[in-house]
Amino acid sequence: MLDIGSRTVHLKIADLFPGSPPEPVSSWKQPVRVADATDRQGVIPRAAIRSLVGAVTASAAAASAHRVDRLIPFATSAVRDATNRDAVLDEIEAATGIRVGYMSGVEEARLTFRAVRGWLGWSAGRILLLDIGGGSLEIACGSGTDPALAISLPLGADRLTRHHLPDATPVRKRDVKALRRHVRSALGQATAELRAQPTPLTCVATSRTFAQLARLAGTPRPGNGLPAADSLSRKELVPWVSRLAVRTDGQRAKLRGISASRAHQCLAGAIVAEAAMEVMAVKRLTICPWALREGILLDHLSRLDGGYPEFMTANGSSYDRTKFPALSPRS
Questions:
Q1: What 3-state class would DSSP assign to 74?
Q2: Residue among 27, 30, 33 at smallest CA distance from 6
Q3: Cα separation of 203 and 282, whole Å?
Q4: pTM for the full model?
Q5: For residues 273 and 210, is the Cβ–Cβ distance under 8 A?
Q6: What does the DSSP 8-state code read for residue 123?
Q7: pLDDT digits (tens, 9 = 90+) for 4-50
Q8: C-alpha–C-alpha distance, residues 168 and 171, integer Å
């Protein structure tokens, strides 16, 4: 599976057997930082396109070296929402022979929900899912394998940092307040139907943003002093919004759980996480290690009767599942 995200191109190789969870074989990443390069008009520039082509080419070579039977290439919001998306995907195909598909934000939410259900099982009951990506926030809820309701909002940590926060850190209080208002307004308008659903038994979060915030804000466990990284409490998260705002990127990167590559966007991520938990009346979230990629693999497993995941092509039509692009092992 080839995931073209806002920050990296990620090749994940797994063995799939009906009746068993995906078995990881290998993982390979190359930074591309498409979101950072995209201008305010939503155009991915030439340099970033060349970087994407190079990363996809290298990923294809790695997949071939591992004798991958089927390559599932897809792009998430950074490419999907670009104004020159079709041209970018056409250029990748012309250079590599690989047709990259994309899915809607709601479909991302559905597949991520499927991954969470697969990880937690039926004992989790009705689930509420929150997932912060680079370009979007997905929320879904339901009691089945797929969610009963799902939404996607343009409230990703990368997107909000670029469009609503200054480049320089520390960040002024008025900028933090303005972003909070924007996020809460968007959530309030879009989540009414979700909030009217029955109370979930389990509230879950996925994504690197939530995982890092859980390590940052988690209460140290007795004995080893290490923070709990398997859950995130809103009460523990709230004070970290102001603490992150007054720190520079370098200072943030020294905090537990915050990587240098994500230090600049962690404030926006914390604001979205805190606001989403408040609006959805969530006190604590369980952090699930499975997310979109695992959801796609589980969906693929369910289609081993000959079909393959269906994404959209550059011209807006669906791939024929029987003709989904494959990478054949080289001899």
A1: strand
A2: 33
A3: 7
A4: 0.88
A5: yes
A6: G
A7: 998 899 999 999 888 888 999 999 999 998 988 999 899 999 999 99
A8: 7
